[in-house]
Specification:
8 helices, 208 residues, 5-stranded antiparallel beta sheet, single chain, two-stranded antiparallel ribbon, alpha+beta, elongated
């Protein structure tokens, strides 16, 4: 499932959870990185609240260079908001407790609108002279199956209705340009990491 593959993509199932002290990383980015200082000051505040709530040692907690923590690589705000106690032991341990880790990733997806059994991606077939234009940075569901069809993009193998929200994604192949269509669950994966290629990798590996 996608939750399992998130762990693989993020940290190779817990093998590489980061070696930077989170307190140092967040303080450096909060006060010495002006382009995103507001964001990281907020995350620093969230981390200070988190270590108090979870009884963590702020001087020993390590993570990524940006302050992401544990097997799921949650930022402090996401840890506080989405981490759950998966085995009712009154703790939320995203480094060592696999019940908590899996439940927390699943909860992140659910809270962002994951539809159980819903489609993630579909392949496409283009008309000889399609009329679409694509913004490769866009991840919003700004099209529908019908609107894509009207632009010469046939959505393949999907049981969705014509009004189903969708996004057209550039998915280059070795032999040239290619395109796929993402649905609500694809969008949810991009809430974890805002990259179409990241979301495609997670989905394709899960399917494999």
């Amino acid at each position: 499932c996608s939750s399992d593959l998130i762990m693989g993509v993020e940290t190779k199932y817990g093998r590489f959870v980061g070696k930077y002290r989170v307190l140092d990383a967040l303080m450096t980015l909060a006060f010495d990185y002006p382009p995103r200082s507001d964001y990281f000051r907020g995350e620093l505040e969230q981390f200070l609240l988190l270590y108090s709530e979870e009884h963590l040692d702020p001087l020993t907690v390590t993570g990524s260079y940006a302050g992401a923590m544990g097997v799921p690589q949650f930022m402090p705000s996401s840890y506080r908001m989405f981490a759950v106690d998966g085995n009712d032991d009154k703790k939320r341990d995203l480094w060592n407790d696999w019940d908590d880790i899996l439940a927390s990733i699943a909860n992140y997806f659910v809270e962002h609108g994951w539809e159980s059994g819903g489609p993630v991606l579909a392949e496409t077939r283009l008309d000889p002279e399609p009329k679409f234009q694509i913004d490769t940075r866009n991840l919003e569901l700004n099209e529908t199956v019908d609107s894509l069809n009207a632009q010469g993009v046939e959505v393949m193998g999907t049981p969705q209705t014509g009004t189903t929200p969708a996004v057209l994604i550039s998915a280059e192949q070795q032999n040239g340009p290619a395109y796929r269509v993402g649905f609500k669950n694809f969008y949810v994966i991009t809430r974890y990491s805002r990259s179409a290629r990241y979301a495609m990798a997670v989905h394709d590996l899960a399917e494999a």
